[in-house]
Design a protein that fits this description.
The protein contains 14 helices and five strands. The strands form two sheets. A three-stranded parallel β-sheet has the order 1-2-3. The chain has a two-stranded parallel ribbon with strand order 4-5. Helices cover about 55% and strands about 5% of the residues. The radius of gyration is 22 Å and the shape is elongated. Helix 1 links the parallel strand 1 (about 5-10) and strand 2. By secondary structure, it is mainly alpha-helical. It folds into two domains: about 5-190 and about 295-325, HUPs (Rossmann fold), CATH 3.40.50.620; about 210-290, Tyrosyl-Transfer RNA Synthetase (Orthogonal Bundle).
Length: about 325
């Protein structure tokens, strides 16, 4: 039996940080052994909010592929491609936009939130309003059975399902399956200051950070503000360092919690223990990433080869779509 198809993507807007890794990439690496996985660099999506500054787009694209590979994605197991190198995405986006009611786009929660919270940027554009249609085209192009998402992202996927249903109904052809959410329980890491890890907050630890930078960021992490002396009883549930220990020190997190609550381990010693654990995880990824970036032509070949593989399937889908719509000769 053929494997079920999984699709997901990431925008090339900067270096992948540990929040991205544990929120998505770690799961993608696991999925590629059991599914026919398609993971792509969503450079057109990056333009929806960054159309006015594309100076770093090429660099970020190459860097993101290095992040993918260093994290364990394998081009022999998964189709890794660049969205803009598969032009059929644009054609399907256009055709789906013809049938998508404007009201569906205007009610999108992400659209409303970003319009309210990104007042410093002019994103009142056709491209930004229509990004859910482009997202649907990305998913439906490969007839994805599943899209890996957290529970909070399920409503976003519903738009793609609605568009698939509408297309199949209007043209009386079951061209597109309705993609299902592949619910994933992701590990959640705070930023170094205790807030959500985000590039906009400047509180991230990136896969591109040097081991020295990682060590410095660990030592600067916010700990229990009520703990003054080393032997004061701690409250690990409010400590950023302990939140990291829950992921990087799973084998001894219970002991660390007990020692903290009893005041048997100080914050500096706790941070140094975390430094060691994180180095074992982060340094091999960093070193592999650096080696990949030293040979940019090989990275570009991987991007182009994966995109050619994606184009084969995209062309097959578009032949069905054009036939259903009765467009072309």
């Amino acid at each position: 039996m053929s494997k079920k198809v999984v699709l997901s993507g990431s925008r090339p807007t900067g270096n992948i940080h540990l929040g991205n890794y544990f929120g998505a990439l770690e799961n993608w690496v696991r999925l590629q052994d059991d599914y026919d996985c398609h993971f792509f660099i969503a450079d057109w999506h990056a333009l929806t909010t960054g159309y006015d500054d594309t100076k770093s787009l090429y660099k970020n694209t190459v860097s993101l592929m290095a992040d993918f590979l260093a994290s364990g994605l394998d081009p022999a197991k998964s189709t890794l491609f660049l969205q803009s190198l598969v032009p059929s995405h644009a054609e399907l986006y256009l055709l789906l936009s013809m049938i998508t009611p404007l009201s569906w786009l205007e009610r999108c929660p992400t659209y409303k939130d970003m319009m309210a919270n990104m007042g410093e940027k002019d994103i009142a554009t056709h491209g930004f309003l229509g990004y859910p249609v482009l997202q649907a085209a990305d998913i439906l192009m490969y007839k994805a059975d599943f899209v890996p998402v957290g529970e909070d992202q399920v409503p976003h996927l519903e738009m793609s399902r609605e568009i698939a249903r509408r297309f199949n109904f209007l043209y009386e052809k079951d061209v597109f399956p309705e993609p299902q959410p592949l619910l994933t329980k992701s590990k959640v890491l705070p930023g170094t200051d205790g807030r959500k890890m985000s590039k906009s907050y400047g509180n991230t630890i990136a896969l591109a950070d040097t081991p020295e930078e990682v060590s410095k960021k660990v030592m600067s992490m916010i700990t229990d503000p009520a703990r003054i002396r080393k032997d004061d009883p701690g409250h690990p549930e409010v400590c950023t360092v302990f939140a990291f220990h829950k992921i990087f020190s799973e084998d001894e997190v219970g002991d660390i919690e007990e020692q903290c609550r009893k005041g048997e381990i100080g914050c500096v010693a706790c941070k140094r223990k975390l430094q060691e654990k994180m180095a074992r995880f982060h340094t091999p990824i960093f070193e592999k990433r650096q080696k990949l970036l030293e040979n940019e032509s090989e990275l570009l070949d991987i991007i182009r080869d994966g995109s050619e593989r994606a184009k084969v399937k995209a062309d097959q889908t578009m032949a069905e779509v054009r036939k259903a719509v009765r467009i072309g000769i």
